[in-house]
Amino acid sequence: MPRSQTSGLLAALVTITNKTHQKASYAVQVDFADSAGTVVETRFVGAENVEPGHTEQPIAFSRHPQSAHLTARLAKAQRY
Fold first, then answer.
1. Between the CA of residue 54 and those of 7, 9, 10, 15, 57, what are the distances in Å?
2. Which one of 40, 50, 60, 61 has the lowest number of neighbouring Cβ atoms within 10 Å?
3. Cβ atoms within 10 A of the Cβ of 64, count?
4. Are 59 and 2 in contact (CB under 8 A)?
């Protein structure tokens, strides 16, 4: 997400779509990596009881300083 929309914080918008035919919950791991590719922070977001065919968009925020140049990437996702 643009830092202008997050008060300068690094944030990743995660899109979760329930493609099943029943309610489902999801947990997502987002890793923030430095320019060398080293993971320096891991955040978890999720959505509970998502209706079939619906989409939720939680935001994973980094706690690193605004000056940090990190890249967010999806590490894992689990439906339960």
1. 28, 28, 26, 10, 10
2. 40
3. 15
4. no
Calculate the CA 75 to chain-centre distance.
Answer: 9
What is the rounded CA–CA span in Å between residue 77 and residue 71? 18
CA distance 17 to 72: 19
Question: How far apart (Å, rounded) are the C-alpha atoms in residues 31 and 52?
Answer: 27
Residues 78 and 27 sit within 8 Å (Cβ to Cβ): yes
What pLDDT does residue 2 have? 67
Residue type, 35: S
Per-residue pLDDT of the chain (80 residues; tens, 9 = 90+): 767 777 778 899 999 999 999 999 999 999 999 999 999 999 999 999 999 999 999 999 998 877 778 999 999 999 99
